[in-house]
Amino acid sequence: MLFFSLFKTLVGKEVTVELKNDLCISGALHSVDQYLNIKLTNTRVHNEQKYPHMMSVRNCFIRGSVVRYVHLPPGAVDVEVLHDATRREARGG
Amino acid sequence: MDVTLQEVPLPGTALAEELDQKLLIVLRDGRKLLGVLRSFDQFANLVVEGAVERIIVGEQYGDIPLGLQVIRGENVVLLGRVEDGKDAPEGLTEVSAQAIKDAQNGEKELNKLKSTIRARMDFLDME
């Protein structure tokens, strides 16, 4: 649940999701669920000329299994807190 | 960062907001479907009514009618809400289903030809 919790703290922030098919989508993180499916609002696709079908899409749901990277804004994650949370989770809560 | 139970929505309900909306669905093989979402489950298995496959070749696009489709979730890449009346890609012209199929086959042939040429020239070690 750690990464689910982490992503929940990032809701509302501007992120870029890179998919396994190399498509890059930037947008505001709207919601995340336990499969790490991601919903973005106000999306923009990088290299839009290559993906003309995405031009009319402004909100999207991305299936967690197709995500390669999520680029986060600098300073969005407090690494100290994450570190502690990781140890706590490793000890079993 | 602890999560209380009330905050957690039921698993796999994220798509409830998209029900009965016209969506663009991108599949893992690169195909693009448009249709109205009628049902889904936690795997993102989907039922799409009035589905069409949209093929884009160069400056042209065309829709192939498919009707009611069930899509297995593992093939789904993303779902995008399509704004009403704005589903046509800007700057592209619509052509018939047959014309776009022909154009797609033409493009496939061209790519095949290109790759065989490249394969034959391989010994030249070109960059």
From TrEMBL, chain A:
This is Sm-like protein LSM2. It comes from Chlamydomonas schloesseri. SUPFAM superfamilies: Sm-like ribonucleoproteins. It comes from the Eukaryota. Keywords: mRNA processing, mRNA splicing, Nucleus, Ribonucleoprotein, RNA-binding, Spliceosome. GO terms for biological process: mRNA splicing, via spliceosome. It is found in: Nucleus. Belongs to the snRNP Sm proteins family.
TrEMBL record, chain B:
GO terms for molecular function: mRNA binding. It comes from the Eukaryota. Keywords: Cytoplasm, mRNA processing, Ribonucleoprotein, RNA-binding. Its main location: cytoplasm. It is found in: Cytoplasm; Cytoplasm, P-body. PROSITE patterns: SM. Residues 10-85 form the Sm domain. Pfam families: LSM (PF01423). The keyword Endoplasmic reticulum does not apply. One of its GO terms (cellular component) is ribonucleoprotein complex. GO terms for biological process: cold acclimation; deadenylation-dependent decapping of nuclear-transcribed mRNA; hyperosmotic salinity response; mRNA processing. Belongs to the snRNP Sm proteins family. Component of the heptameric LSM1-LSM7 complex that forms a seven-membered ring structure with a donut shape. Component of the cytoplasmic LSM1-LSM7 complex which is involved in mRNA degradation by promoting decapping and leading to accurate 5'-3' mRNA decay. LSM1A and LSM1B are essential for the formation of the cytoplasmic LSM1-LSM7 complex which regulates developmental gene expression by the decapping of specific development-related transcripts. Required for P-body formation during heat stress. This is U6 snRNA-associated Sm-like protein LSm1. It comes from Edaphochlamys debaryana.
